[in-house]
Structure formats: structure tokens, C-alpha cells
User: Fold these one by one.
Assistant:
Number 1:
Amino acid sequence: MIKVLLVQVARAGRSGEVERPSRMWFHGVTLPYLAALFSHRAEVEIVDELSRPVPFDHECDLVGITFMGAALPRALEVADRFRARGRRVVVGGVTAAGYADDVAGHVDAQVIGDAEGLIDPLLDDLEAGRLRRIYRHETPLEDLSSAPLPRYDLVDPRRVGPYFPVEATRGCSIGCSFCLSSHVHGRAQRRRPVALVERDVRWLADRGRRRILFVDDNPMLDRRYFTEVLEAIGPIGVTFTANATADVLTDGPFLDRLAAAGCESLSLGFETLDPANLAAIGKGYLDPSTYPAGLAGLRDRGIQALGMFVVGLDTDGPDVFDRIERFLLENRVEMAFFHILTPVRGAPLHDELAGQGRLLGLHATEHGGDRAVFRPARMTPEELEAGFWRLQERFYSIRSILTRLVLVRPDRHYLRRLPTVLANLYFGWLARRRRIVI
């Protein structure tokens, strides 16, 4: 039987080494799902570099590599080292698709887009000794009804916690200007049958994995569909977290359904508080004036908010960092993640900034959202980076944590926020060491 090693490569830190936590916050779904696609013809092992070192001496017939954004240089290094040992290497994933030319000289083959339906041709060619350079579908797959159960059994629970991943949808129809996902997967969101989502959640719950992370870009884009998901998984008795656009805050009945089904937190794509910036990136339908009431309603239902922000957009000046911090404090947002705008090749923003001569010549994937790789419109790159780190440190400072989470009037959900306080303290430790929080 063919032996396959699947590797999720991690970003190297400022020291040049992978900074490996004692336990991963969660394990992605990509490796277990790919393992399921290979398993009918191959013996598969998976390695996430954040959980353990890459086994370069592993005996196998094929190495499959995937990675996110800033891990590109490390991924090319890993591919080169495996090929130097005589291993065949294939790479896939959203970032690899955007940087296909950079990757080409370091691998034997590339899978671009959806992997379903491409594994058998890939393995046939591997056995025949004639791998093609590119494997891809002419158009994104529309039917996800044959999705196998991910090989969750290959994930070592001692190295991961507390969340396990489930995919309900793929792609996002919004198409934010800085997002590469819609460029690779298309603007049409595809939905897995609810019965398959329920199958995955139930398999995990039956084995004691009762905290679920929906890894989708935007699973609640079609609320009618996700309501069906909630009705299916609610009786299983799990808790879950997921991504959502901020307009979900205005839909009280839907928030009620989320809470009843076990939603413990939402990662909300605020991106920016400026309506002009929202319009520019393709989210002009959002209304920041609705956020305070919406966040209060979320908190009343026992659902925590994780605010997602991008800094460096065209109307952002040096005061943007103070405005974001003030908004988060006033609305007692439990956690927030910040990123410097990064023009990834393949996304519309990259071509726009290149046409304006604003790219600084730095390879965007050498950085993970903590470096300015372009000239902002209303501040210098140095001001953008300094403000970004100052915002990280101040939001996760002891004073901020006390204001948002501790020195508040206790409600029935007060004690449930203790793990969030601990997470805030850890993220503050990271920020003070100039290590990006997420």
C-alpha cells in the first residue's frame, strides 16, 4: 500500500525556529480530511508542525504539504529537505494556489483548489512515475455530498485542545478585497449536507470531544441552512464557536437559536469601524452603529465575542488604534485579534496596491499580519507597525482585562468567563514579546 505523510507547516518565528506551544489551541480540519480522501488507497500519517517536529526521515512514497500565509518560506524549506531525501512532494492549499509560481520549483506537483476527485489521478500518476505539475478542477466543485468523515482518529488529543474542527461550508460569496479564499474557491459558497455535519459532530461527541470549532470562512452566510445545522447538532449536547460577519448581531431570533444550540463564542469580522473602509473592502452593508446593542445582546445570551480587525486601510490614520481600543473597552468585548492589512498575491487588493506603486517590495507571505508590506495612505509603515503592537499590548493589558471581564457587574455567565480571562493573560504575554496573537 502507498505510504503518505501529510504535513501542515507552521510559520517560523523571529528566531527562525518554529515556536511550538505545549498544546495547540485547536487542530485544523485540513489534514484529517485529506487523510480520509487518501485512506482508501494509502496508509496515512499526519503531522501538524505546531504540535511536533516534521519527521524528515519518515519512510513514505509521497509527502503532502499544506500551509497558511506567512509559512510559505518554511514550507518551501520543508519541501526541499524532503526532495533531497528522494521523496515525492505535492503541495496544496489556498496560499499555495496564490503563490503557485513561487512554489513550482520546490515540489513535484501542485493541487490547486478542491482536492476531492483529484486524489485517485494523483496516486495513479505517482504509481506510474509520471506526476503532472498541476492537478485542478476546471471549476470549483458544487457537490460536497460525498465528503468522508475526517480521520479524527489520527489527531493526538494530548497535543490538542480544547476544540476539534468541523466543516459545514466552503467558500464565501462576500469576496473581501484582501481575501484570497474567494479567488481560489470561487464566490459561491457551497454547503455540505446537514446530515454529514451532524455525523462529524456526533462522532466527536461520542468520543468525548464536545467542544467544536466550525472552521468555515463564513458558515452563517446562509442562516436558513445554518439554522438546520443548529437543529441537528443541538440535541447532541456540544458547545461550539464559529466565524460570522457582524450583521449577525442584529438578528435576535438567530442569536437565540445559536445560544440554545450551544454556541459559546463568535469570531466577528468587524474588520474596521469606518463605513468608508467597509465599503472599500466589500462590506458596505455593515452598520457599526448597531454594534453596541448587538454586543450587549450577545453577552446577555452567554455568547462571547471575539472581534476581528484589520488596520492599515485607506482611511486609517494614527488615531485608528485608539478608536478601536475605546470601542472594545466600552463594549466589553471579551477577546480581539488584530492584523495589519496584507496584500496577498491573487487577491484584488494586491493588484490595486501594485498599480498604485505602494508595495514595498517585501514578500507578503514573509509576514503574518504583523508587518507593513505596503505604504498606508494616511500614516507611515513605521507608524502602522508601532500602532499595531501598541494596540495589542494595551488591549491585553491587566487594566484592560479587569475593565472588560473582571470589574463588571456579575451576571449568570460571569464565572464562565474565567477561561477567557486566562486566555487574555496569555495573549498579553505574547503581545509583550512581539509575538502575534493569532
Number 2:
Amino acid sequence: MPSSRLVLDASLALEGQIGVHGLSAGDFTSLEEAAESAHRKLWELRGSGALGFWSLPDDAAIRDPALELGEELARRFENVVVLGIGGSSLGAKAVISALGDRFGDLLPRSRRSGARVFFPDNSDPATFTALLERLDLGSTCFLVITKSGSTAETLSQLLVVRERLGSSKLIQQTVAITDPEEGPLRRIVREEGWRSLPIPPSVGGRFSVLTAAGLVPIAAAGVDARSLCKGAAEMRERCEAPSLRKNPAYLLGGIHRLFDRRGRNIHVLFPYADALRDVGDWFVQLWAESLGKSETVGPTPLRAVGATDQHSLLQLLAQGPQDKLVSFIGVEEPATDLEIPRAWTEHEAFAYLGGKTLGRLLDAERQGTAAALAEGGRPSVTIRLPRVDARSVGELLFLWEAATAFAGFLYGVDPFNQPGVEASKQLTQALLGRPGSEAHAKRLAARPSPDPAFVLD
């Protein structure tokens, strides 16, 4: 009988299951001191209020206004467009694609549970132009989401929308979600009287899915955000155990760190459900931006989708370099299943499939892939969800957030900052002539010219 909650199964990471490439009892013993130190640091941050994401699942002061606003937008508007990038879009996009009707945008308003929500998160002009030209702007709300209030991609899109709508309609059809006190967008909100909600200063963008940044668009899409928060709260309770062996986040983060020490620093999230495809993009940002802080440590996250990527990445995973750890995600009960009809039974390739279901086929492919990797001495862990519903997705998101925070301290880095992205922002601003960027413009001017021997036209 399937479990009623998320299950983490790390059996196929162990020496007894996959041989010398697996982890031994001694490996876990070697991590105990670092794990205890990481636990203390997390609890110190929690006690000081600096571990902002930890309290979000049941923080009614943050949750309730966000859900009320999202539900209002669902009633008032046909479309909601999220102007945001990175942590300001990936979490909400992952949840909506997991829990919303995958093809609901094709349905008339009367058959949809919420607004159509769009995420034009890149500043590609072709994409943004196409979206704006196809939307009825009069029935569209724009959510401007940027914690800093100065994100160039987001503010540039906002300026385009302002020109299309006009300043009076902009106030009526735009909501800002940003820092409560600081930043250029917050100043515009004050000066022009926009509706807005805050992103708590103690919550980084990639951990912000349960703030207004995620909850407003999630609720606007008609997704059950309250159950999402409930699932996250239930996982948080499990993640408060100090023991590496009893805390799923600590075990998950610890296993990744142990394998990284052995040179397995490519970490693959491999859900076997189309609904969880965008969770992979969210995971990549969470893992990379939190842990890639040192020239000597920092894993490379990849995302895959089963069974599709059995026909692309699996060959590399099975016989390429021994530098990867796979985290499979399986689903015990698909939301909908479809029986495979019996036909052409005289042909073996058809006969054995008849009478099975597509859901059974998909899960058999997951199990078979994990077993095949294990036979080759290639480790994996498996996260099993009872089903893809709001509660389970809440569990899954919080599990990875907590595992990321814990892993950060095992790696010896601060998992809550991202200093490595500043140089790119500075040089971009210099290229666009932002005042105050003169020193960065000089940096660019001092760069060597392209080598003509390696420029082919």
C-alpha cells in the first residue's frame, strides 16, 4: 500500500546495493561532526529570524494576504502575466505546471478554475512581443516581482507594459511584489500608489515560493495553495530532527555532499512525471546558486524528465564518467491513468503491453532505469510521492529547500547569497550606459580584443 506522505529511499546509494561505488557506514560516520555543526548553524539562524524560508509554510501574516490577492485576481482578470526572472518566477511556474490543468489555457473561462498565468521570464523581445500582441491587455493583470526592485529584465518589461497600457491603467492592472522598504520599484509604488505586497528581507528569491512572490500567481491560477503550504509544514516538521539518519533533508543533502567528495559533482534531478518537469528548472537554480560559491566545491545540477530523457541522457548516465548522482522522483498514483488496449497480440512487442496502463509503464521505466544504473555501480536516490497533489508538491519543495540549506554548511559556503552574479550585472549596466558604471566600462575597455584567427565569418 502506498505511503500517504513523501518517501526518501537512499538504498541505491549504498555499498551493499551497488558495490564499491556506494557509500559505507564509515562514510556516514565521517560526516557526523560536520552534520552536527550544520544543524547548529541552521538552528542559530532560525532562532535569530535569519532563516526566513523556514517559517513560511504556516506564516498567516504572509500567506493570507497573498492568497486573498491571488484569488481576487483570478476573479477579475482573464490573464495574469508575471514579470519576474529567476526566483521571482521559477517557483510559481513549477507549482502551477505541476498542479494546474496542463492544457487549461485551451479551455473557455467558464471551465477554468483560475486565470491563465504566463511567465515571460526572459528578456527576449520576440517572446514578449508575441505575448503582448496576443493578449487582451484590458483583461490582463501584470505582477511585477523583483525582491531588489532593480532587476533589469523585469524593469525593462515593465516599461514596455507601461507604454502599452498608459499610466492610469497601469495602476489599475499592476501589482508589485518587492522589498517592503528599499529599492527603485518600492519607490515607484509609494509615489504612484500601486497595490503591492512585500517579500520578507530574510527570504532569498530562490527560497521565496511560499511568499507573495509565489503564492499570488499560484492562487491566481486556481491552485490549492493552502494545501501546498500544509504539505510544506508537514515536511518541515520531519526536517527538524537533528539526526542525519532521521531527517530526510539532512540525509538527502548529506548523501550529495559525500558523493561530491568522491568526484560525483554532477547532480541530476530525474522526475518521472510531466507535471514535475518545471520543478527541475527550479531545482537547478536552487542548487547551483546556493552551493556554487567556491573554486574547489560546488555541484553542477542538471534536470531530466522520465521517460523522455532515457532517450538522451541515459546513455551518458549509464556508461559515461563516474561523476553523477541521480535523484529520481516517482509517483505512486498518477492523477489519471490510461489502459493500453490489446491488439496485434501475435507480435510480442505489442502483446506484453496490452492490458497494462501508461502509468504502470512509466513507473516500470523508472524502476528499471534505477536498477540498471545500480548494476553498473552508479548511485541514485529515489523520492516517491503518493501522488502529484498540492500537499505532496509542498513536501517536495520544502525538502529540497531544507536539503540545500543544510548542504551549504556541509560545503562550507553561505547558501543564501549569490555574489558571483554581480560582475555580470555590473558589466551589463556599463554596456547600457547606466550612470555610475564608468569604472566597469573601463574594465570592459581593458579586455583583449577578439583574436581574428578564431573569429570565422
